[in-house]
Design goal:
Blueprint (H helix, E strand, L loop, with lengths): L1 E5 L2 E3 L5 E8 L7 E7 L6 E6 L6 E3 L7 E6 L4 E6 L8 E9 L2 E4 L3 E5 L2
Parallel strand pairs: 2-11
Antiparallel strand pairs: 1-3, 3-8, 4-5, 4-9, 5-6, 7-8, 9-10, 9-11
Amino acid sequence: VQLVESGGGLVQPGGSLRLSCAASEFTLSRYVMSWYRQAPGKERELVATISSSGTSTNVADSVKDRFTISRDNPKNMVYLQMNSLKPEDTAVYYCEAAGGFQVYWGQGTQVTVSS
């Protein structure tokens, strides 16, 4: 069971990135998927969540109207589209799969917003 995030990098303020989360050896469609982030010296923060079917989403107030979570169950993928990025969005971003009593995490991808 493995989750692998990708798509992070260095971007200027106001720019965009799309993070991807790919699953291997299990089917993501059975899980509620979330993106979290953790900045240096701070606690891990929930950014966005999407239901297993993809029909319901929630995003944190700090990223509302800028970030969008989506999923493609046939491709076993989850995405986080990040627009209008700010320096305070700099963090390691993690995807999480939660279902029943099972929780899985990826290794994270670094997002740095700086000019």
